[in-house]
Amino acid sequence: MWGIMFSIFFQTLKNKGLDVTLSEWLTLQQALNQGLCESSLTKFYYVARMILVKSETDFDKFDMAFDECFKGIRSDDEVTNRMLRWLDKPEMNDLLHEEDKEYLNRVEQIQIDKDDVEQKYKQRLKDQDSEHNGGSYWIGTMGKTSFGNTGGNIGGIRVGGSTGYQSAFQVIGARKYRDFRDDRMLDNRQFQMALRKLRQFSTKLDIPKTELDIDQTVDKTCNNGGCLQIVMDRPRKNSVKLLLLMDSGGTMIPYCNLLNELFQAVHKSNHYKEVKAYYFHNCIYSHVYKTPECENGDWIETEWMFRNLDKDFKVIIVGDAAMAPEELYAKDGNYRGPNGGYSGEEWLMRMRRKYKKIVWLNPKMSLVPAPWREAETRIKALFPMLPLTVAGLNDAMEILMKRV
């Protein structure tokens, strides 16, 4: 049975996207044979995570796989649904006295016997058969023991409830590492952090020398016998010009907030030499729109964009590439406006010929329905296509900044 269970665990880890090697898996088996987990599911969790997970960005994937495989296993520290109902008392937070909070905040150091607390906790789980609020023995709320929630004990095991004093050394059943993942959808701050990599400084600008050159100032001062000699230089300016093209409407509606975050992040990054942002629906045709509503007339001609935005612009296209084949290949495939004599594919090929640095970010990479997948495959052949995740955006920035 256990052999089958561990085989399932190995496959589940793989399915969640963890790169577990055979060598690492054999190391885990050796750790089990040497008794490092001491027949404890909790200790097995930590030992397995330490051996199998290479980066904190994968902690959440590991947690999901572990929960999927072992959530039905009986354990000494298993918390039943009935006990969690007993402990679900959010109103208890309002009953904490201010003096108790002040006392807890004043405590600077308390020595905790972790093993002793864990042993007592396991015994209480076996013995307890009713709800407890207050008191100093059972698992409950508002008490003085080392297990439960909203109580007055520093250190211990929080069971249920929400974190309060940040003093528990163990929290049962929490996925604490979701925000560590590098394959999750982005927020405004993550967009800004990634966009900072899109920098190409130039000092060859004909502007006054108004910026202190620290290195040259130190060198000149040293060569001048220690007598301070200030050296100024022209400020560095980011010479990157950015063109952002975003798919809007239809299957992109679920991602409108995400596109808004990207738009805001780009415009908060005011250090670019020039930024232009336009919208399209499904594919780029003879016009791109000024607003995400993509209304006829509220647009500019794509030819005008080619003439006025030179080839040095770095282009980020955001879209799910979900469209019918005729929208990409037919010269009249644009059902919302004019094609301008070219198919969508031909407009994209003209984009590629005009701009040398283009990436396509896809919020649902390879997840589009089968009838529309042909368009995604073709667009992948035209441009580097990456998922709209933390890792995907970072990779996109490297492609855009790579010297030809």
Label the overall shape.
extended
The counted number of beta strands is 15
- Order of secondary-structure elements: HHHHHHHEEEEHEEHEEEHEEEHEHHEHEH
Strand content: 5-15%
| Residues in helices, as a percent range | 25-40%
List unreliable stretches of 5+ residues. Answer: 74-78, 106-111, 162-173
Helix and strand composition category? alpha/beta
Number of helices: 15
End-to-end gap: 56 Å
Radius of gyration: 29 Å
Largest sheet: 5 strands, parallel
Whole-number mean pLDDT: 76
Question: Would you give an account of this structure?
Answer:
The protein is an alpha/beta fold and 404 residues long. The chain is 39% helix and 12% strand. It is built from 15 helices and 15 strands. The strands form 5 sheets. A 5-stranded parallel β-sheet has the order 10-9-13-14-15, covered by helices on one side. Helix 2 (22-33) packs antiparallel against helix 3 (41-52) and helix 8 (188-195) packs parallel to helix 15 (390-401). The longest helix is centred in the first third of the chain and has 14 residues, at 2-15. The relative contact order is 0.08.
